[in-house]
Amino acid sequence: MQTPQKIAVVGSGLVGTLLAIYLKRAGHTVHVYDRSPDIRTVEFSGRSINLVMSNRGWKALEDVGLDEEIRKIGIPVDKRAIHLQDGKLNYQYYGKEGEAIFSLSRGVLNRKMVDLAEAEGVEFFFERKIWDVTLATATLWEGETEQGEWTELKYDKVFGADGAFSRIRHRMQRQSMFDYSQEFMKIGYKELHIPANADGSPKIDIHSLHIWPRGNFMLMGLANLDNSFTCTLFMPIEGENSFESLTNEEKLVSFFATYFPDTKDVIPDLVRDFFRNPNSYLAIMKCFPWTFNDKIALIGDSAHAIVPFYGHGMNAGFEDITILNELMQQYGDDWDRIFKAYEISRKPNADAIAELSRRNFEEMSAKTADANFLLQKKIEKWFSDKHPEKWMPLYSRVTFSLQPYSEAMAIGDFQNEIMQEVLKMDNIQENWNSEEVENKILELLK
């Protein structure tokens, strides 16, 4: 427990609500503000990518005893199901036997988190627009419109958990010596839907992340609790085979018949969903510092928005909370020290998962259908099963361990260099699991 303070969290998304629970448990009065309506009262669809919870996210939930509640609303996913254009289906298992990520509907999870936070005594203020913050005094400014009259709300601390386009960060950006960058990918996404069968059974395997890799675009699907699937079409915004090029029903149906022929029977409302649901955009956002004195801190997407291709936006945000909580326990009421140590610890790891997420688009959209890449994964799995103390594949380091992202990326890059040498060996396709290959890897690891 710390000396109780009055703390505001701006943003009632997943990171904001979990942070509020941690702060409440530490003895503080916690108010959460959000400009949107209470998510429990709105229909949530059209702009979502299902979330995947992995070890870092589970750790943050376990530390406050909420993991079992959340497991009830998730579906374990232990492999990728790769749908090739010729109709073939390949499976790639993620980790060791029993290791799985969990598919979660963002809307269902967010509603559950708000319920859990309210049960802890956190107070929520929905449809309250925060336009600005006075950094030195942790004073929020709220009003109906940006140009209208504002009311001041005084706090001891303010946490900005208000996402990639954070108002709290917007104020911090106007200081000198504040670094900020925002980069939009040339790829957008659109939500599509695979309903369950009439008898309630799933049309495709619910324990797989389904990927239709097609080079510079792809379709992806993750299961929901009702055996339907939330699908996401990732494509260039402009050019050939882009959102811009699919202007009418005829072009859309022809495009899907060419590139995703096996979806014809599973996405019955393709045309309706495609033209009704909005195009959404993907941005990578970086900044530093993340804190101001002992008053203000950014957390989650407001500090480090990433693209969704590693499934770690939520997991990285939850890990921010884990690290912040460890520092609160270590340094007690010395918030200046807590905040400084928090941003220094997290910044390199946030940058690393941003880079890994960017790279993973290429892996999912192109490499998962590439014979050399599949061979590399096969060799890595075989070698890692024989020498678990010497080799953990990058995906497992990121997803099934708590190793800092920056370390995982550095080791992953080193392992990839080794694998490129191994793939040059004579007859590697036939001899991939030979003693010669094993010795070569052991030698290169030295």
TrEMBL record:
<keyword id="KW-0560">Oxidoreductase</keyword>
<comment type="function">
    <text>Catalyzes the hydroxylation of L-kynurenine (L-Kyn) to form 3-hydroxy-L-kynurenine (L-3OHKyn). Required for synthesis of quinolinic acid.</text>
</comment>
<keyword id="KW-0285">Flavoprotein</keyword>
<dbReference type="InterPro" id="IPR036188">
    <property type="entry name" value="FAD/NAD-bd_sf"/>
</dbReference>
<comment type="pathway">
    <text>Cofactor biosynthesis; NAD(+) biosynthesis; quinolinate from L-kynurenine: step 1/3.</text>
</comment>
<dbReference type="GO" id="GO:0004497">
    <property type="term" value="F:monooxygenase activity"/>
</dbReference>
<protein>
    <recommendedName>
        <fullName>Kynurenine 3-monooxygenase</fullName>
        <ecNumber>1.14.13.9</ecNumber>
    </recommendedName>
</protein>
<dbReference type="InterPro" id="IPR027545">
    <property type="entry name" value="Kynurenine_monooxygenase"/>
</dbReference>
<keyword id="KW-0274">FAD</keyword>
<dbReference type="InterPro" id="IPR002938">
    <property type="entry name" value="FAD-bd"/>
</dbReference>
<keyword id="KW-0662">Pyridine nucleotide biosynthesis</keyword>
<keyword id="KW-0521">NADP</keyword>
<keyword id="KW-0503">Monooxygenase</keyword>
<comment type="similarity">
    <text>Belongs to the aromatic-ring hydroxylase family. KMO subfamily.</text>
</comment>
<feature type="domain" description="FAD-binding">
    <location>
        <begin position="7"/>
        <end position="355"/>
    </location>
</feature>
<dbReference type="Pfam" id="PF01494">
    <property type="entry name" value="FAD_binding_3"/>
</dbReference>
